[in-house]
Amino acid sequence: xxxxxIGYGKMGKMIESIAVERGHQIILKxxxxxxxxxxxxxxxxxxxxxxxxxxETAFANITRCIEYGVPVVSGSTGWxxxxxxxxxxxxxxxxxxxxxxxxxxxxxxxxxxNRQLARLMNRFPGYSVNIEEIHHTQKSDxxxxxxxxxxxxxxSEISRLRKWELAPPQPSPNLALAFSRSExxxxxxxxxxxxxRRDSVTGTHHVSYSSEIDDIEIIHTAHNRKGFAxxxxxxxxxxxxxxxxxxxxxxxxxxxx
Length: 257
What we know:
Number of helices: 9
Structural class: alpha/beta
Order of helices and strands: EHEHEHEHEHEHEHEEEHEH
């Protein structure tokens, strides 16, 4: 299958490596050095495009692929305030798109565990909830799209929570939990997300429920980028011959319980 890669940074190069290993051909690579190559005549040679760029360019890249008639898989985050607009454009053009805050198969299973745990914890208001995410210092959006997806999953199941908010950096996990407990004691309707940036960290996400008696925690730690890239290629293989708007649940055949 012919694939176009939009965004040829570290992730784009990893996607290329895995796609080639799986027997695909990369027929177009678009990056900051060759934006003039991002034209319909070049893109329409691809069966699918995989887009990993920055928040400020993602929407335009995705909608251009749709308007050119090429199914697009996007792992860019930080642009979801325009996601519904992109979906409308996709529907109007009878296009295909699959956008995800994280393509790791493990993370998407983690999303489901997170929602199921939140559903159970809704009955126990004595527990406060806190999300912490740790990423490399080059990450362009804060909090991470994965952390926002986790927060949205929690909020959808815990009736006392209405929104998430970015919490001030905490110097230690214990203080982070203390912040969460304090918010709960004040009757806050917000779910705090603590975003930490460190060198050479692929990504760690930590959801904790804390009470005066005990803590319940779930953690996902990525060891490298390979899982993200593999998921993106699998998504491309899934979407290339389909029409519509899809998500990772479709790919993984995960049904809402």
